[in-house]
Automatic annotation (TrEMBL), chain A:
Top-level taxon: Bacteria
UniProt cross-references to PANTHER family, sorted A to Z: ABC TRANSPORTER PERMEASE (PTHR43738:SF3), ABC TRANSPORTER, MEMBRANE PROTEIN (PTHR43738)
Coiled-coil residue spans: none
Record domain MacB-like periplasmic core: where: 22-220
Keyword terms: Cell membrane, Membrane, Transmembrane, Transmembrane helix
Protein name per the record: ABC transporter substrate-binding protein
Record membrane topology: Multi-pass membrane protein
GO cellular component: plasma membrane
Domain ABC3 transporter permease C-terminal: 257-369
Places the protein is found: Cell membrane
Ranges annotated as spanning the membrane: 254-275, 295-324, 344-365
Pfam families: FtsX (PF02687), MacB_PCD (PF12704)
Native organism: Roseibacillus persicicus
UniProtKB/TrEMBL annotation, chain B:
Protein name per Swiss-Prot or TrEMBL: ABC transporter ATP-binding protein
Recorded family membership: Belongs to the ABC transporter superfamily. Macrolide exporter (TC 3.A.1.122) family.
Keyword line: ATP-binding, Nucleotide-binding, Transport
Residue ranges the record marks as coiled coil: none
Molecular-function annotations in GO: ATP binding; ATP hydrolysis activity; transmembrane transporter activity
Annotated ABC transporter domain residues: 5-228
Organism name: Roseibacillus persicicus
InterPro entries xrefs: AAA+_ATPase, ABC_transporter-like_ATP-bd, ABC_transpr_LolD-like, MacB-like_ATP-bd, P-loop_NTPase
Cellular component per GO, a single term: plasma membrane
Any single Pfam family the record assigns to this protein: ABC_tran
Cited SMART domains: AAA (SM00382)
Amino acid sequence: MKLLALAIKNITRHRLRSLLTILGVAAGMFLFSAVETMQHSLETSTQSKANETTLVVYRENRFCPSTSRLPEHYGSTIERIPGVKEVIPIQIAVNNCGASLDVITFRGVPAETLKSYTADLEVLSGSFDAFAKRTDGALVGEHFAQRRGLKVGDTFEAVGVKVHVNGIIHSGSPQDNNVAYVHLPFLQQASRIGLGVVTQFNVKVESADQLESVAKAIDETFQSDQQPTRTRPEQAFFAETAKQMIELIGFTRWLGIGAVVAVLALLANAVLLVVRGRVKETAILQTLGFSRPAIGVLVAIEGIILGLTGGLLGVISSALFFHFKSFTLGNEGLTLALQASPEVHLKGLIVAFLMGLIASVFPAWKATARPLVNSLNS
Amino acid sequence: MSAFIQIRDLAKSYTKGKVTITPLEGLTLDVEKGDFLALMGPSGSGKTTLLNLVAGIDTPTSGTLQIGDHDVAKLSRAQLAKWRSKHVGYIFQLYHLVPILSAFENVELPLLLSKMSKAERREKVNSALELVGLADRAHHRPTELSGGQEQRVAIARAIVHNPELLVADEPTGDLDRESADSILALLSSLADDHGKTIVMVTHDPKAAAAAKRTLHLEKGQLVTATAV
């Protein structure tokens, strides 16, 4: 604590230099946090919420919701396959199948099965009953609502579909927070796909060990049909659909590493300048009895303060940026809300702390390596 | 009873390029506790080298240097730092106060290394500042003080941890006569009334006259001793 006060006073000695260093670190850590936010959002969207007893039945050789069309009556056939517990037909309408930062997704689901489809769905405002009663009603995911500035009672139109907002919902599954749930027949008609056609079926099986056999049975049932199917566990479906997104976002990790290296170089340069400017003063402190480790700690504290302050600024800026811009990255119907999380913030601060510490090691060693008499005479 | 500082055959040499320089050679000297010793001599005579060795900021090439219970010549760099923090107060010619710290904070610096509480540190710093007559300037920064006052703060910093030994390198070299006299009176009082052993390097005969003893060095060796 005693050295901390001294280090803070030292930092205020060259205010402009310290400020510029902090701003540089903040810019680097903003980039790092932004990249980490993308990585983290992707991870939570594609991995953590995959249900291990759910299969997704899609049209064979189709990858976009607008081209996957299956007859709704397949549902009753699938229900009869041994091991199947529940079949939920889903119609999905998206405004853009390619990569986009502003994806709008409607999911048409039979109202009576919506709660079993999204078990942890919570209505934040409005009501489920109001949605159930209104044919053009919609339950809008909280991120979707925030991005579009929607509230209960509003009407909005997208993808040629006009709906009335009956509720704002929150779900433990990040995907659900980015979409608008509507009634299946309504979406089938409004999107001009027509009644009796769906995008996919979500099939719940009795137990996880039946996933493979049931998937095989479904695909074999329809292989000679006009619309053959491809059935995969939900986790595999997400991973495959998100493959391009994962590759794209995976590449950004290099940007994050670049930002960290830039922060390290900037901090090391700043701390080295500080140390070089205080050679004699450091020698005087040593003459007063400050040991080499004590001087090293003093230098390290200065580096850490610069790193942490810049890191905090960068992390906060990144959090505010993603909060107010509300980006939703989409590809082939899979949506990815880019949302800052406490884990990312903590990681950013830990990295900033470590960069401050690492950047101080060489300057701290240099500050005390010279013979004391030489430093006093410099 | 043995002397507080016992120097035997002390030598210091170093190489500069291909040349070996020996600023101090075979010096033997005793300094009693409470002595106020002035070291005089021309530039390059070895007086500052001797002062630095006595202060523990440099190490001898050969010989023994016993200060109190410590064989200083045998201490490592880390041990020397610890020893200095407890036993030595250093007074520089140009004061070398930290400009961003107040007089109080400058004096407090050596105590930051101890395990003292904040209240204990405050008490010791206030006592030191009172002793040098600057209690009312405690919260002034060095730039707000005169040269004489800055040197008083530096002396307070040197004595705040109550060391037995004070080393002073031209402590009046940058001061006007009046301020210099006042600093010398303060150093004499520290030796006489507080039992500090003081070793001072000076070029100024008037400053040397304030000491109890003056030693003249030339070419790294003791030439004459003058007792007051």
